[in-house]
Amino acid sequence: MVDPRQYDLPGADVAWCPGCGNFQIMESLKAALGELDYSPEEVVLVSGIGQAAKMPHFMKGHFFNGLHGRALSVATGIRAANPNLLVLAIGGDGDMYGEGGNHFLHTMRRNPNIVNLVHNNMVYGLTKGQYSPTSPQGFVSPTSPQGVGNVPVNPMALAVAGGASFVARAFSGDPDETKEIIKKAILHRGYALVDIFQPCVSFNRVNTFKWYKDHTYYLDENYDPTNIRGAMEKALEQDRHALGVLYRSERPLFEDSLGAYRKDATPLFGREPSEERLALFLEENYG
Question: Residues 40-67: what's their mean pLDDT?
Fold first, then answer.
């Protein structure tokens, strides 16, 4: 087991509000990586814009911080370039389901072997509390003073219907359970979504720690995550939300379809070039 403290970044200026659920999600992720024996050199954290997307700035390891909503595309490319790396795309509900909604849908279809951790606090916390794609109807915010009129995005139902091969939900207030769910996502072969409920203590006074405790429950050991119809029923529940692995399936990876890896899993940059084949190529094409 790798000591999770290897992921600590001394001197990092952690710009999250005191009491933010992001802190515990980061600690759960560090613990999961440590228990699965991943060193920081083997992990890439990819993010876009937002409070959750700052996480790669606060952990030791490789990271790519890009445009708002584009983390999944970058993560897919990194994994395709080097299948030996563990790639995690991290962002908030706005970054992933709003600005990144189109990428969210099509990444599920491609099924790259990446983990997608979404910090879902049902509000835009970085930009001072505007409503987000997952804000409930009636939610009052600076951009919805009369209450949100839109139906909120249901990421669990979208993921099950959209082709995700692993769909799970966790709650930051339960760090041990969140750690175990993240471990299952990492061990899954394919695109793994973990939607993580977390309170925004500064800008969301509706969906608090108590609200999440009162409106969630854990799936029991008799639940079958391979039953897609059952998973959709759980995803569509309104009053209380299921925590755990809702759905899991096996199908080919995006990387499996790339010709460069059909006979050799070694990344292209790690292969020894063949001078004979290069000479033959130049002769055949350029005389």
Answer: 94
Give the DSSP per-residue string, 131-198.
--TTPPTT--BTTBTT---SPPP-HHHHHHHHT-SEEEEEETT-HHHHHHHHHHHHHSSS-EEEEEE-
User: CA–CA distance from 190 to each of 68, 161, 184 (Å)?
Assistant: 23, 16, 12
pLDDT band at 261 (very low <50, low <70, confident <90, very high): confident
Beta strands 166-171; 241-248: pairing state: antiparallel
Give the up-direction half-sphere exposure of residue 126: CA atoms within 13 A in the CB hemisphere. Answer: 18
Domain annotation for the chain: domains and CATH numbers: 4-256 (3.40.50.970)
Kindly report, residue by residue over 112-143, the tens digit of the pLDDT: 999 999 999 999 988 888 889 999 898 898 88
pLDDT tens-digit readout, 263-274: 777 787 788 888
User: If 0-12 CB within 10 Å is exposed, 13-18 middle and 19+ buried, where does residue 146 land?
Assistant: exposed
